[in-house]
Amino acid sequence: MSTFLSPPPTFFFFIIISTTPQLPVRIASVLRMSTAQQANLLGIPTELRLAIYDAILDADVDCDILDKWDEGFEDRGFWSRPSRNEQTRLDLTWCNLLLTCRTIHTELESHMSKTRTGTYVAEIERNSHSITTFRWRRLDCAPRDVKSMIVEFKTEDPDCGFWGDGGPRPIVRELFQSLNLLLHCGPWLDVRYQLPELMHIGKLTIVPCFPALESGSSDWDPTYAMSGARSTYAQLRSFASTICQQGIAYGAVDKFEVTMGEETWEMEVKDCGRWEMPEGWRGYGFEWGLDQFREPSSWPES
How buried is residue 190: exposed, middle or buried, by Cβ count under 10 Å (0-12/13-18/19+)? Predict the structure, then answer.
């Protein structure tokens, strides 16, 4: 007897059609015909069923999991708190399919192991000196099966530095804490739900993107804008280098890569025995782990 719930025959098709607008026209039309005939997913040819799985797994998740970071200062220094949109649900169709019945669960898991590369894709949008949005684009495997991750770092102003006169700006702390949350909490980035063990990422690639420059609509002087873009690339490289050299996330991330155009920098995370916080980061909210988010003094007043 199956340990999974058995939904009504039209359940699969309603969920797939309504939540996956990127389905090829041929597949979608067959699904609608099957729905009208009260067929179920296992009643269609295997080849078509596997094509449906691929369409679902390749779909753009387009989920804004974090809206912004709240910032503050207290006696011990600066702090950051992730601000989640409580209306946002990270609802993945392939996860729902795994829970339908044992046959589909086994078939889909087998197909994923053969066809998926285990790569997560996310976007981070930057507004001046802070992160405004953390958006998932692709999540086609469980956290335990991740092999690599690509983060597109989008910024409209390529000339905003990571460092001010007094120390690192909020953007540096927010990038660091985004990594902290990801490794401890997985794709949900929710401090209330911690993974049994740290997520492991073989290679984490950061790709700086400049939408306004790439579209040709920027008011920036091309020479000045390119100089700013190269500065952003260098600062992302410096950030990743600090994490690698200090041994932060050793055992959770093997290698960092920063790439822009034809230029690529990469470095492996060193095993330093224990992490020593860089002197320039002290007092700026670069604590590792989740305890900092659970302490009442770290939460802003409502």
Answer: middle
| Rounded alpha-carbon distances, angstroms, from residue 12 to 23, 42, 91, 112, 298 | 14, 10, 15, 18, 44
Q: Find, among 286, 282, 291, 196, the residue nearest to 249 by Cα.
A: 286
The pLDDT value recorded for residue 127 is: 82
H/E stretch holding 127 reads strand 119-127
The pLDDT of residue 159: 64
Start-to-end CA distance of the chain, whole Å, equals: 50
**In contact, 254 and 203? CB cutoff 8 Å:** yes
The amino acid at residue 168 is: P
How far is residue 80's CA from residue 153's CA, in Å, rounded to a whole number? 19
How far is the C-alpha of 108 from the C-alpha of 39, rounded, in Å? 19
What whole-number distance in Å separates Cα of residue 249 and Cα of residue 247? 6
Contact (CB, 8 A) for 12 and 50: no
| CB-based burial label for 155 (10 Å; 0-12, 13-18, 19+) | buried
CA gyration radius, the chain: 22
The contacts of residue 184 (CB under 8 Å, 6+ apart) are 194, 195, 198, 199, 289, 290
> Is the distance from CB of 4 to CB of 98 less than 8 angstroms?
no
Among the residues of 24-142, which ranges form H helices? 25-36, 46-58, 93-98, 102-115
Has this prediction a pTM greater than 0.85? no
Show the CA angle centred on residue 89, arms to residues 83 and 95, nearest 5°.
135
pLDDT at residue 49, rounded to an integer: 92
Instruction: Give me the average pLDDT of each 10-residue run along the chain (302 residues).
Output: 36 49 55 52 90 94 91 81 82 90 93 94 89 93 94 82 82 94 94 93 95 66 76 93 92 96 95 81 87 62 41
